[in-house]
Write a structure and sequence with these properties.
This protein has helices spanning 3-15, 18-25, 29-43, 59-87, 103-114, 129-137, 153-163, 235-244, 288-303; strands spanning 48-51, 54-57, 92-98, 120-126, 143-148, 165-173, 176-180, 201-204, 229-232, 249-251, 254-255, 263-267, 274-281, 305-306. The chain is α/β, with parallel strands linked by helices. The protein folds into 2 domains: 3-87, Winged helix-like DNA-binding domain superfamily/Winged helix DNA-binding domain (Arc Repressor Mutant, subunit A); 92-306, D-Maltodextrin-Binding Protein, domain 2.
Length: 311
């Protein structure tokens, strides 16, 4: 089967006649008839009923044409996209999927600014850890950014190894209470589970069937969440609730002043550190766009800081 054969068949269906299709395509009727018969022989199907009155598509022939139209449209889209890309010098293509951290956004914005004079298609996705790993394993993204806790490190390491992915450390930080600047929690000498009961605990929706070990929040509550808890899949909602409702969450605590105004973090110094890093397919080398992003990612991680409200 060839695209040319499919194009002839679709044209016949549009014209309702082999003769008219031949005239439109500047071909002989014999050539088009032979092309359609070749398709019928290849798939062992009867696509067209032929008679002295002309042709009529069989039911399976009509279905076959619908798939042919779809394939031809996909071909046209691919040609339009990739022929343009091939003809454009210095064209960059890059995609990243990250858990909901601030500093990868900073790196991504700097990547855009660095390539203002070049042609590119970049994409940035935020997702839970399971989706980040899937995106890299399925090659939907070039680079992923995830956090690893002491409690899930063995599981994550084993999963990455099974999928042929590799983890590159970026930064290590103590787990922190994330909240607004001036939050009552920042004034306490010690934070315990009991002191959090008066405030709203925020956590991200991980979706159905996702292991608790893949949670984005540091698992500081071994038995149950505080009595006030809100789940959301939106980082914008999480941030606004922290700013407006005296809510809090528990995470890496890494902040960048230019993109996290109004937020602060309170390190829980008695807890083990969170390791944040980037992942890639170990069998593939990074593209130029991915290399630039990783360089900027390391720099952004280095500029990130934990607020000084150490307990």
């Amino acid at each position: 089967m060839t695209f040319q054969q499919l194009a002839y068949l679709v044209e016949v269906s549009k014209c309702g006649s082999i003769n008219k299709a031949a005239q439109k395509l500047y071909l002989s009727q014999t050539a088009i008839s032979a092309s359609i018969r070749a398709l019928e022989d290849e798939f062992h199907l009867k696509l067209i009923n032929r008679s002295n009155r002309g042709i009529e598509f069989t039911q399976i022939g009509k279905e076959f044409v619908s798939y042919a139209v779809s394939l031809l449209e996909q071909r046209d889209r691919m040609e339009s996209l990739y022929k343009h890309t091939a003809q454009t010098k210095n064209f960059l293509r890059f995609s990243v999927t990250s858990q909901r951290f601030l500093f990868p956004e900073d790196a991504f914005v700097r990547l855009l600014k660095r390539n203002e004079d070049r042609n590119y298609t970049f994409s940035y996705h935020e997702a839970n850890m399971n989706t980040v790993i899937d995106d890299i394993a399925e090659h939907r993204s070039d680079v992923g950014v995830i956090s690893v806790f002491d409690s899930n490190k063995a599981m994550v390491d084993r999963l990455l190894d099974n999928l042929g992915l590799e983890f590159h450390p970026l930064v290590s930080s103590p787990p922190c209470i994330f909240c607004r600047v001036g939050h009552p929690l920042t004034k306490l000498e010690k934070i315990t589970e009991e002191t959090l009961d008066d405030y709203i605990y925020l956590y991200y929706d991980q979706g159905l069937g996702i292991a608790a070990e893949f949670s984005e929040e540091y698992q500081w509550f071994p038995i149950q969440k505080p009595r006030h808890a809100v789940c959301s899949s939106s980082r914008a909602v999480i941030v606004n609730l922290m700013l407006l409702a005296d809510a809090f969450t528990v995470g890496s605590g890494l902040l960048l002043d230019e993109i996290s105004p109004g937020l602060t973090s309170v390190p829980l110094t008695e807890e083990k550190n969170i390791q944040i890093g980037w992942i890639k397919d170990s069998r593939q080398s990074l593209s130029d766009g991915a290399k630039d992003f990783v360089s900027l990612l390391h720099a952004a991680a280095g500029r990130s800081h934990v607020a000084a409200h150490t307990l």
